[in-house]
Amino acid sequence: MNTASSQIVRAGGVDCFLWTWSPGGGKSKGLVLLFHGLGAHARFPSVRVAAEALARGGFTVCAPDFAGHGLSGGQRGFIHSAEQLEADALLFVEAAQQAHPQLPLFLAGSSMGGAIAFQAALTLGGQVRGLVLLAPMLAPAASAGAQVLWHCASALSPWPQLCHASPSACK
């Protein structure tokens, strides 16, 4: 596996880093765009470990530092809008595909990055061969009745009492 390299992509009026991990010695099985969560970045431990594992498995992995995150420019942690994140994600996909043409495209993300990957997959449609979401920040629509049921079930859960009686049990 090759170590991470980077390129600059102009996204949302800001210079953003797009990091790449390549599989060692051979043909890549595909291109994975890996999107980080809020406050993280491409070299954040959980993102980096996932990228390295995928590269060892034979995939080329590209992971951006969104504006305001990692080494990218912009106000730290500030997000202009969900629409801007989605537009930036599509720019990162385009840049990665230009650098690695002909590879099948996969999208992955955790937390906020999962929501971004999901929206990008909807926009890109059949171009995406697979989608991996790790604890995605999604809010599925639920009826009023389902919401009431969920809140009642949460209130009846033994976990709050357990955590109150023994906080170390919830770590």
Explain the overall architecture.
By secondary structure, this protein is α/β, with parallel strands linked by helices. The protein contains five helices and six strands, in the order βββαβαβαβαα. It has helices at 45-56, 82-99, 112-124, 144-156, 159-165, and strands at 5-11, 14-21, 31-35, 60-64, 105-110, 128-134. The protein has a six-stranded mixed β-sheet, with helices on both faces. Helix 2 (82-99) crosses helix 3. The radius of gyration is 19 Å and the shape is globular. The model is unreliable at 159-171 (pLDDT under 50).
Which features characterize this protein?
single chain, 6-stranded mixed sheet, 6 strands, 22% strand, globular
Q: Tell me the distance between the termini.
A: 35 Å
State which percent range the strand residues make up.
15-25%
Gross morphology:
globular
The count of helical stretches stands at 5
Relative helix content:
25-40%
Write out the strand line-up for the largest beta sheet, numbering strands in chain order.
1-2-4-3-5-6
* Helix/strand order, N-terminal first: EEEHEHEHEHH
- Low-pLDDT runs of 5+ residues are 159-171
Cα gyration radius (Å): 19 Å
Mean pLDDT: 85
Task: Report the sheet with the most strands, covering strand number, pairing sense and barrel closure.
Answer: 6 strands, mixed
Structural category:
alpha/beta
Number of strands: 6
